[in-house]
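Translate structure to sequence.
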């Protein structure tokens, strides 16, 4: 085995958090490590053990990785909380990661869905010079209007272009609830903004502030077959702050053709791991230079 795994317990605001460290078994440890920020509600293994497999692959390639349960989740103490209130937990996890080896000099936050959103909220509220990279997969920016517009454009829009739909409609095989749903979503989409990023204090606004203020590398990954990713794309098109953020020179966007929200196909998961490793290698090389 080219990696080792160990349990680590660490403190966050007086409560005990549990994580799993995956570390290279031998050879040189890279100067950058990874904190995997889990989206909720789930614990450190992730869907289909996604985070477990990711951490082990990173460790086998020489990168120390920590996946952990934030307060109120899995085996960690505390009351349940959502992604908007785990910045302290992320900070404690970064401390725990860096304590694993004197060779570790910097860290990357790796998050999926609202784990990615939590990472952006964290760098806004808790600046940390040790954080030199963000790896964000299908960030969560949901609002009622944004969801409605994504449904109209990416689901109903596709259905309206299919001959099968019109054939069923003419034969009375399209239920009234489907037509009512289309009308309701269309009305909400075009009467409202896709998300509340223009409202002071909304989590979408705080996320984009975190992104705009971050000076490290940012890798943004969006899945083709994912409604959350499509909502994020619509957000970028209609909000000036998000459009500006997408033009940042330190941000790289990758669209994954055929991938679903959690990269459940083996080939998609492996490609995502490879992309993560390439970004870590670039960051590590920049640190040496």
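Result:
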């Amino acid at each position: 085995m080219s990696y080792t795994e160990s349990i680590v317990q660490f403190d966050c605001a007086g409560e005990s958090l549990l994580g799993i460290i995956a570390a290279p078994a031998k050879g040189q440890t890279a100067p950058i490590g990874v904190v995997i920020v889990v989206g909720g509600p789930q614990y450190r293994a992730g869907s289909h053990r996604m985070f477990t497999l990711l951490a082990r692959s990173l460790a086998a390639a020489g990168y120390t990785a920590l996946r952990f349960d934030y307060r109120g989740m899995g085996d960690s103490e505390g009351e349940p909380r959502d992604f908007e209130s785990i910045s302290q937990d992320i900070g404690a996890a970064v401390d725990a990661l860096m304590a694993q080896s004197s060779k570790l000099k910097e860290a990357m936050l790796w998050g999926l869905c609202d784990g990615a959103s939590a990472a952006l909220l964290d760098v806004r509220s808790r600046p940390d010079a040790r954080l030199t990279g963000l790896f964000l997969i299908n960030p969560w920016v949901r609002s009622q209007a944004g969801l409605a517009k994504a449904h109209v454009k990416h689901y109903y829009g596709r259905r309206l272009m299919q001959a099968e739909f019109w054939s069923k409609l003419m034969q009375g095989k399209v239920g009234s609830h489907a037509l009512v749903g289309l009308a309701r979503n269309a009305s909400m989409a075009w009467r409202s903004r896709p998300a509340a990023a223009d409202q002071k204090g909304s989590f979408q606004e705080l996320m984009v502030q975190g992104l705009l203020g971050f000076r490290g590398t940012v890798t943004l990954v969006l899945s083709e077959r994912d409604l959350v990713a499509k909502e994020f794309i619509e957000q970028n098109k209609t909000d000036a702050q998000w459009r500006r953020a997408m033009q940042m020179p330190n941000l790289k966007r990758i669209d994954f053709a055929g991938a679903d929200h959690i990269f459940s196909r083996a080939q998609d998961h492996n490609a995502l791991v490879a992309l993560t490793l390439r970004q870590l290698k670039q960051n590590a090389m920049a640190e040496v230079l």
